[in-house]
Design goal:
globular; kinase; Rossmann fold; 10 helices; disordered N terminus; ATP binding; 57% helix; five-stranded parallel sheet; 200 residues
Amino acid sequence: MGKAERVKKEIIGVIGGIASGKSTVLSILQGDFSYRILRMDELAKALYQEEAVLREIKKLLPASVFTKEGALSFSRLRTLLFTEPERKKHLEELIHPLVFQEVSKEIEQVRLLREKLAVETALPNQDFLSQCDLIFYLDASEETRCKRLIESRGLEKEEAFQIIHSQSVKRFKEQAQLVINTEESIERVRDEICQYFQRL
């Protein structure tokens, strides 16, 4: 059995902070290598709208972050969480286990069907990482990420840096099989991923 047959690559964890280039790498994995894509932030947003979860969230957050209809306003929530880190911690303690439960179900299903899945997150945990065959860590300077946030979301520079500094992702870099410099062109990033797969 050759080396390429021994190395599993069905489940890839794509790890990086906000504006680190995760969407670019996911589009390459999907378009060039036929991976299904799963974004943890989208899973979290879906959970926020489930009635049972929303009831628990309302116990943690002030009425000001909800609309008149009782739905969660994500723009108000983002502002609140950056000014009140303790609330952010409690909300993450509620939501993150539920998100990772859903991710584990998806991974199990993908393995049964012998498909391929790339899972994007800025907030991995060790249990999730242990379920991945490969981990890609996306690297870009804070200045580049700040510029991307200002251009894509219209944020002020100070707010952009606050968001970046609120995420502690670098500690996962040493666990990655591939570190990708996303300050390079999309063609260079694609070539780097392609060359990595060819080496497996």
